[in-house]
Amino acid sequence: MSFITDESARLTGLIAPAQKSTSAIQTGSLQYPSSSLPDQPVITGGGSVSRASLNLRELWEYRELLYFLTWRDIKVRYKQTAMGAAWAIVQPLFTMLVFTLFFSIFVGVPSDGIPYPVFAYAGLLPWTFFAGAVSNSSMSLIGSAGLITKVYFPRMIIPTASVCAGLVDLVIATVILIGLTLVYGVTLSWSLVMIPLLAALTIVLAMGVGILFAALTTRYRDVRHVLPFVLQLWMFSSPIIYPLSVVPEKWRWALELNPLTGIIEGFRSSLMGRAFNWRAIIVSSVVALAFLLASVFIFRRLEKSFADLM
Question: How far is CA 104 from CA 27, 123, 237, 244, 270, in A?
Fold first, then answer.
């Protein structure tokens, strides 16, 4: 607890209130002219979603704070744990073994000719990152109440940092997935270059959902109890333990509206060198981007009341 308190105090020192003057404001080791810092968040009363209403430039101006908050979340996650970052390997591997035992051996769920451990791990990789990022970011504003009530900075940086902190686990799990694929004798192909793009799409989706639930949880505390059920339903409506091919053709379009469907199917196609389901990937890209823009807009509309709700 003292660690978090000390970190919060140090981060508070990094944030200088915006002032209208020509003097420089010290932020960590960098100096920014005060004229370049925003006075207050730009929150419009309505209208179309635009750059002005989202005020994305403000996030870039506080990028150093984003780095420190991300690093803080990473250290808090693994501090005083015996295995440290190894949990990024153990958790999806253990889940993969359980899925393989029950759904492949006992139930006989098909895997489209892919070794089921590889099939399951390829689905668990983006899902584990997504679910963890959404869960952590949903409570991030409440967990940083001491920082929010002291100084002004873009509140969206806090849930964004929670999502970015999971990138370490995502990179480690991706390396393990490629190694597992080689163990099962699968020859990798050029399609592997799609993995970074699919990972970026997963990050965009996680940020969109995480930012939305961070705002809703701060305003309506009951949301924290609803989120686990939402994630559980989302997991079973995603092709993690089963392939998209087992879904009847007339209902497949509904499953493809789930943005994780195109991502998960894309990961498997990248590993196996198979043809991509471009329709599902395009739908996932459009839905993820639209979700992010809508969530940012909603967050901007609600953030003016966050300090009073802490």
Answer: 54, 14, 18, 16, 22
